[in-house]
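Lab channel / #folding
Pinned by the channel admin:
"Please post every new chain as: sequence first, then the structure tokens as a reply. Keep commentary short and put observations after the output so the thread stays searchable."

First post following the new format, from NK:
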Amino acid sequence: MGKVPAAIIAIQSLGLLGATVTGFLARQRRDEIHALNDQLRKINAELRSRSDKLIEKEAVLKYIEKKDQEKSRDEADIDDSLSNEERSVDALILEAKEDISNDDVEGGIQKLKIALTKADGFDSAKFAVRGRRELSSALQRIGEQESAMDQLQRAYQLASDNVEAYPEAIHNKVALCGEIADLYADMGDFRSAAEYYDSWIAGMP
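Reply from TO:
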């Protein structure tokens, strides 16, 4: 058998070296992405805690103010600002949340879909956003991440389009950025997750 030409040996060696380098860079990139994801989650958890406390404080202050205004009324616990349709949707969402907390996820999802059909029917952005956030959470519990993302994206668009229609829209929009980012991270789309984390942080008070 004749000798293998030196040129062929050199080319084969370069090919092996290139494959080794490519594999090393791919692993390094994967490790960097995982490290970035862990860092983003830590930042998210800390900032979300701050956000939740601020939102809770505002909600309590509004509740106290409202109750002070209703002291003289016999039915102070009834929110007269809600229409009958909105009360019906609100009741469905509350029942769905209770079902889901009792591990009846399918039953909860069914009620949420009914609530959303009603909310969309009378153009209630407030309840449409709220219902879609709850539905997304329920869908994630049963592993339907794509459908869950669709609900979050639709809720985000609704909140963005109605920032002047109801007071909670701005808070909803900011919170949805964090929820969308979390879900993208769970789905392995770290680039999109980072973009929404940036938007979420930028929207923090």
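NK: Helices lie at 6-69, 84-101, 105-121, 125-141, 145-161, 169-186, 190-202.
TO: also worth noting, Confidence is low (pLDDT under 50) at residues 72-78.
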